[in-house]
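Here we describe the complex-level prediction in full. Unlike the single-chain runs in Section 2.1, the two entities below were treated as one system.
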Amino acid sequence: MSSSWRLGVLAVASVLLSTTAVLAARGVDRPSPAPPSDAAVRDTDIAFFEARVQRDPYGARDRAALGALYLARARAQGSEADLERAEALARESWERRDKRNPDALPLLIGALMAQHKFGEARTAAVTLDRVDPSTVATATLGEIDLELGRYTEADSLFASLSVQRTAPAVAPRYARWLELNGRSAEARDLLNAMRTSALGGYRTPASQLAWYDLRIGDLAYRNGRADLADAAYRRGLAAQPEDARLLTALGQLRGAQGRWRETIVLGERALASLFDPATLGLLSHAYLAIGDSAKSAEYAQATEVAVSRSPGAFHRGWALFLLDRGRQVDTILARARTDLRTRKDVYGYDLTAWALYRSGHLRDAMTMIDSALARGTRDATLHYHAARIAEALGDGARQRLEDDSALAISRLAVSFIAGTR
Amino acid sequence: MLRPFLLAALLHPLHTTHTTITQGPANGCAIEIRAFTDDLQAALRRRGAGPSDSSVAQYVRATVSLVDPQGRPAALQWLGQSPDGDVTRLRFACVLPAPMEAMSVRQGMQVELYADQVNVVQVRMAQRRVSLLFTPGDMAKPVR
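The structure predicted for the assembly as a whole is:
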């Protein structure tokens, strides 16, 4: 948190304190005001910094602080306009001062990555690593390299962070690298240790604990541990009862367990908090599973409409859903191929393979899925896709091998995938 | 310091509103609509209107409806609007001409602006909840 950010929060707190003091001095018997919500504090801070930025056309720190607030609000509310504001303010801040301005580049990188502008984010991260080298800068560059499929570079960066892997800003990225390299148990241990540490920290936000619970639950789910996934998701929801991502994740778990009506309840609760096409897709699966094909089609149609204008890079989870419903196969194949030119990562290869399979290009699909599997990532979906492609090619031995691998990694994930087709 | 979240945890531009219709006693109901402020203002500008209460209420009444099987609409009584970050919350009260289960709902806000608009409506009744989705071209849908 920058000093000027703290100033904004303090300004709110002091207003509240002084108001309470005045009322008490006047003998007004009123209940104590409820503390402002995080969102209310953030909006007050935004107004505060907007005024400062207006007054000072040269202020670099204020622009970075305001951009950080916009980025936080974008994450909370899914606002595209806030993301663009955050990116613009980060650029303005860096243009005004490219020395002793530690917040501008991390903000720019965060805003660019949230928009899937990974190439530009990497350029900014390389600059950050040069002008302000730190473990966080290295981990950030490593994370971007993972997204871009630059695994050799990522391996080198993360290997250099082994000793610092438990630093709060390094650990989640390090865990992701471990997972992509098939070292899921180490990733789980690291995330569990970080959550325990965060729990013992001073005023750790509930949202941060819930984020760890989501990641820990997802790892368990992908490794077939329904008990651990269930415990992690429910623990997160105890802290953040309407966290849409946790609700959707638990809904997916319930679907994998065949408890689709619970999936519907959880998914619709998630939709009340945050509009996410992934939740629409999950609900489409759930309604189909309970035999309500009309409702399922309504959700599938809404998913297709919602993502139809998503510019530039696109969300792979949404694309897989549409492919499985036979929607926009040619469009998705074209976009996946374009995406793969700059992002040669595991899931880029997987999506392209699945789009090729759905469009009948089986040999090319097998080549692509082999590239996806080359890292040794423990993900049942990858092996399930490989099995279906091998099956379509009439390669029974490869099909059995891949099906066995998928089941060995996560019977749970296979159950969900199979239940949605 | 960067927060310990993966930076690529992701946002995509989406056009949406969320409407909650809560059944009250004696066929009363409360409606709350959450819309991104910039999208709402763009819709108002397209109609040559500003963000005044009367303009917003008029826009909502033109695009959102609850109708019974005889075609009788529920009158939407404006209660107010309030900003909530990048979102504006719009509140209405209404009296339904028939039980909620018999009503049909249409939520067509902003579909004239965006081809990828998806409006989510969640109807909360005493015993159950119903979700309805509206995309461009959709007509009224029964609550049932």
